[in-house]
Automatic annotation (TrEMBL):
Gene3D superfamilies: Periplasmic binding protein-like II, Winged helix-like DNA-binding domain superfamily/Winged helix DNA-binding domain. PANTHER family: HTH-TYPE TRANSCRIPTIONAL REGULATOR LEUO (PTHR30118:SF6), HTH-TYPE TRANSCRIPTIONAL REGULATOR LEUO-RELATED (PTHR30118). Belongs to the LysR transcriptional regulatory family. GO terms for molecular function: DNA binding; DNA-binding transcription factor activity. The lineage of its organism: Bacteria, Pseudomonadati, Pseudomonadota, Alphaproteobacteria, Hyphomicrobiales. Keywords: DNA-binding, Nodulation, Plasmid, Repressor, Transcription, Transcription regulation. Residues 6-63 form the HTH lysR-type domain. This is Transcriptional regulator, LysR family. PROSITE patterns: HTH_LYSR. Pfam families: HTH_1, LysR_substrate.
């Protein structure tokens, strides 16, 4: 099929139908009659040799073929949106002023950054772009290509380089962190050496913040490959409770070094202990390539990098070696 012979208005109908799953609502959004939408669907079915939608009691259910087309249409829409926005901003007399603009930035982030990078980033945004809002989504080990390309999320902070990238997504390493242990006064490790072996580490009872199952956690996957496992005695949904639990129990927790230092600032009785051999991982920043054409997104990326540098200055060490990630 030669794309130059396709009526591109049909793709617009298909895109809206995939969102609405109703001929009447699709017609209303496109400012056409329901019969016009039905006529367009007939042409689309012939074009793709598929019924595309099946009428059910709950509306028009897309077929597997229609669902496969949804990804391509979403990517096309995202690229067009960026191009149109770039054209609007680059128009004569148009300028981008962060302090006067309104924008919601959506970032996917690991839990450990709640107590390290994210507070610094929030402070910078409040200072330089007070009308912006920041929404954080929990990080998952999966591809975020479509999310970034379509603009559903603006950035992904990925731990360990495990998040796939593609032709539509670019990435840069923000920093490398070291996995360390935090122990409270009740722990047998609190009065011991500054560095412990893997064997001694595994002999302890652990507290585990649960962003994802241990079967998807890079540390536990590495240990399992060697036939070793941690003893998880207590799981919590975030890092917020770690300091209080470590102070009240003999449990230990594993986390990136800068996150550990952030907790020690709030709970000075906790002690940081390093592992021997050391374990390190990278934190990467991912973004949609086409999205950087939008000045707001390009500026936001620079702000995230600025926040990383400021966090490094505040936490000790260089800006390229500040803690992140997840245990």
């Amino acid at each position: 099929m030669d794309w130059r012979r396709i009526d591109l208005n049909l793709l617009k109908v298909l895109a809206v139908m995939l969102e609405e799953r109703s001929v009447a609502r699709c017609a209303e959004r496109l400012f056409v009659s329901p019969s016009a939408v039905s006529h367009a669907l007939a042409k689309l079915r012939q074009m793709f040799s598929d019924p595309l939608f099946v009428r059910t009691g709950g509306g028009m259910l897309p077929t597997a073929r229609a669902q496969s087309l949804e990804r391509s249409l979403s990517l096309l829409k995202a690229v067009l949106d960026v191009e149109l926005e770039a054209g609007r901003v680059s128009a004569p007399g148009a300028t981008f002023e962060p302090g006067e603009s309104v924008r919601d930035i959506r970032i996917v982030s690991p839990g450990a950054l709640e107590i390290s990078l994210l507070p610094v980033l929030a402070a910078i945004l409040r200072s330089r772009a007070p009308h912006w809002s920041l929404t954080i989504e929990p990080f998952e080990r999966r591809s975020y290509e479509i999310d970034l390309a379509t603009g559903r999320v603006d950035f992904v902070l990925s731990v360990g380089g495990a998040t796939p990238t593609g032709a539509l997504v670019d990435a840069a390493v923000v920093w490398e962190d070291e996995l360390v242990v935090l122990a409270g006064p009740r722990s047998a490790l609190h009065a011991g050496s500054d560095r412990i072996s893997t064997e001694l580490y595994l002999a302890q009872q652990h507290i585990y913040p649960v962003p994802w199952p241990t079967s998807q956690n890079y540390l536990d996957v590495e240990l399992a490959r060697a036939g070793k496992h941690r003893k998880i005695a207590f799981s919590v949904p975030s890092y917020a409770a770690l300091g209080h639990v470590l102070e009240a129990t003999d449990l230990i927790a594993s986390m990136p070094d800068r996150s550990a230092r952030a907790l020690i600032c709030r709970h000075p009785d906790l002690r940081l202990i390093r592992l021997d051999p050391p374990r390190r991982s990278q934190l990467s920043l991912l973004w949609g390539i086409s999205a950087l054409q939008e000045p707001a997104i390009s500026w936001a990326r620079s702000i995230i990098q600025d926040a990383a540098a400021k966090h490094g200055d505040a936490g000790g060490g260089t800006a390229n070696r500040i803690g992140s990630g997840q245990d």
